[in-house]
């Protein structure tokens, strides 16, 4: 067997093994073989990481000016771009995502650090009028403190960056914990932290195969804020754990996002956007546009176009330039997706294409799948698959379309496809989701807020206001007269 690549954690500026010496293997979902060995840390290692973050906050990092913080962020952005190739290859080996997608993502990732570097020196307090002329009042915007950043297995570095870049711009220190299914790229990224000039302990990375140890981080009394991306069920547990310490949380959770197609839409463009929304990244994206809500008049034609394209999607080696869809990222997820096919059949839905594993290719492949005849009661209408499965149903008027789009506990994303500019904006306003695309899908940027309504989460990542989630206002009152006042009155 080929030798496993080994990785180490980053705690207090030092490459670190688990105190117990334990490791676990991470498996390449395409080859099916373990390819890397990473530390399997326990609660004591988490304690050490949180302590290192606290000491950097109280020490060198906490004393740095926003301009100096920005310089570190800019250097980190440059290093990420320089190492994009190696980072992308690591993500492909760990999660089976396409190299062609990951190299694009990693090449663009430096832009996030540059964007938030630009924001760091613009963080300003205010001078506030007081009713008492003898008071000068101003605010300081201070970092909330030590942040735990907990990330999922899809796009580990992108989703970590959405937390790390604004947290560092705000002056926080961070303990990152990537998913046990794809921990290696975050450990490779950690090697760049010191090169970028961050003082020891500013950013720490721990890895564990033990969800109780992950929970230990989320509920750690030394953590002031938990920034989490993952499933709604785990998000709930994280919020509960953080509540014990009155720690702040942002939660980026699941979705069941609608693609609403009106009869006047450019159907070829809509079909292309629907394919991008649900089959790119093997459908393993939180914002997957997995519910097709299409006007009855164009249902058959649109489904025909989507099925035609879905049936020709090239499955295969994620590293090959012409592959369009890689494997599902891990065994439990693979079993879960196959289970949804059985459920769809049992509930009387029609499988228009796909609906099975693709066994000839070796890895954990499933076919791009389109399911029609779905109703509001169908499991596929209600539950997040996190795989390449589109569920289609029809509407006949605008109100019904909106009602169907919003008939979900989630509210992460959605799209409206129409050439009618009035209708496009009207519907965008009525869909309850954190991102709505008009005649487009799956576009994100450092400058544009991202997050969800309802069970899709709390708070927003990206955009100028993302730093607000990592800052706390401090009011400073200055007595100007030098006189004494009645000690028994307020104000
Ligand atoms: P998950 O909830 O199983 O795990 C997410 C992270 O939480 C992992 O690092 C895991 O180790 C950790 N974790 C597990 N139990 C924990 C606990 N008790 N306390 C603290 N941490 C714990 O999610 P996943 O399967 O890795 O990712 C898939 C999910 O993520 C999907 O539901 C998807 O929609 C969601 N997601 C959301 C976004 C978004 O931005 N909204 C982006 C990507 C993925």
Automatic annotation (TrEMBL):
The keyword Oxidoreductase applies. The keyword Oxidoreductase applies. Residues 19-476 form the Aldehyde dehydrogenase domain. InterPro entries: Ald_DH/histidinol_DH, Ald_DH_C, Ald_DH_CS_CYS, Ald_DH_CS_GLU, Ald_DH_N, Aldehyde_DH_dom. The active site is at residue 252. Keywords: Oxidoreductase. Pfam families: Aldedh (PF00171). SUPFAM superfamilies: ALDH-like. Belongs to the aldehyde dehydrogenase family. This is Aldehyde dehydrogenase. It comes from Pseudonocardia kongjuensis.
């Amino acid at each position: 067997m080929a030798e496993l690549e080994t990785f180490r954690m980053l705690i207090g500026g030092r490459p670190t093994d688990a105190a117990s010496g334990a490791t676990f293997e991470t498996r390449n979902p395409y080859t099916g073989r373990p390819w890397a060995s990473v530390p399997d840390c326990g609660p004591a290692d988490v304690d050490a990481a949180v302590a290192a973050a606290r000491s950097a906050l109280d020490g060198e990092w906490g004393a740095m000016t926003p301009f100096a913080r920005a310089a570190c962020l800019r250097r980190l952005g440059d290093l990420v771009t320089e190492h994009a190739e190696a980072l992308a290859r690591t993500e492909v080996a760990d999660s089976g995502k396409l190299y062609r997608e990951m190299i694009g993502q990693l090449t663009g990732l430096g832009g996030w650090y540059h964007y938030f570097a630009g924001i760091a020196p613009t963080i300003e307090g205010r001078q506030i009028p007081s009713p008492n002329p003898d008071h000068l009042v101003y605010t300081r915007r201070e970092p909330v403190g030590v942040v735990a950043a907990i990330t999922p297995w899809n796009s580990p570095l992108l989703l970590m960056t959405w937390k790390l870049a604004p947290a560092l711009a705000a002056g926080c220190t961070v303990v990152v914990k990537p998913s046990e299914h794809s921990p290696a790229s975050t450990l490779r990224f950690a090697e760049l932290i010191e090169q970028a000039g961050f003082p020891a302990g500013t950013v720490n990375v721990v890895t564990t195969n033990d969800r109780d140890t992950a929970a230990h981080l989320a509920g750690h009394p030394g953590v002031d804020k938990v920034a989490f991306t993952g499933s709604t069920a785990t998000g709930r547990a994280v919020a509960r754990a953080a509540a014990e310490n009155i720690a702040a949380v942002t939660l980026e959770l699941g979705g069941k996002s609608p693609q609403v197609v009106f009869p006047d839409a450019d159907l070829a463009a809509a079909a292309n956007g629907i394919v991008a929304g649900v089959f790119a990244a093997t459908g393993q994206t939180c914002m997957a546009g997995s519910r097709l809500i299409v006007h009855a008049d164009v249902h058959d034609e649109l489904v025909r176009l989507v099925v035609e394209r879905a049936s020709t999607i090239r499955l295969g080696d994620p590293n090959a330039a012409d592959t369009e869809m890689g494997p599902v990222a891990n065994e439990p997820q693979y079993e879960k997706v196959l289970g949804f096919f059985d459920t769809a059949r049992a509930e009387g839905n029609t499988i228009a294409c796909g609906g099975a594993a693709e066994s000839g290719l070796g890895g954990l492949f499933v076919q791009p799948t389109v399911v029609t005849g779905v109703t509001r009661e169908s499991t596929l209408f209600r539950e997040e698959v996190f795989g390449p499965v589109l569920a289609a149903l029809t509407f006949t008027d605008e109100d019904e379309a909106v009602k169907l789009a919003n008939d979900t506990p989630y509210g992460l994303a959605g799209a409206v496809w129409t050439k009618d500019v009035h209708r496009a904006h009207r519907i965008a306003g009525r869909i309850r989701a954190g991102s709505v695309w008009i005649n487009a899908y799956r576009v994100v940027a450092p400058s544009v807020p991202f997050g969800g309504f309802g069970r899709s989460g709390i708070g927003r990542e990206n955009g100028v206001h993302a730093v607000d989630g990592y800052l706390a206002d401090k009011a400073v009152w200055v007595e100007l007269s030098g006189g004494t006042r009645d000690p028994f009155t307020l104000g």
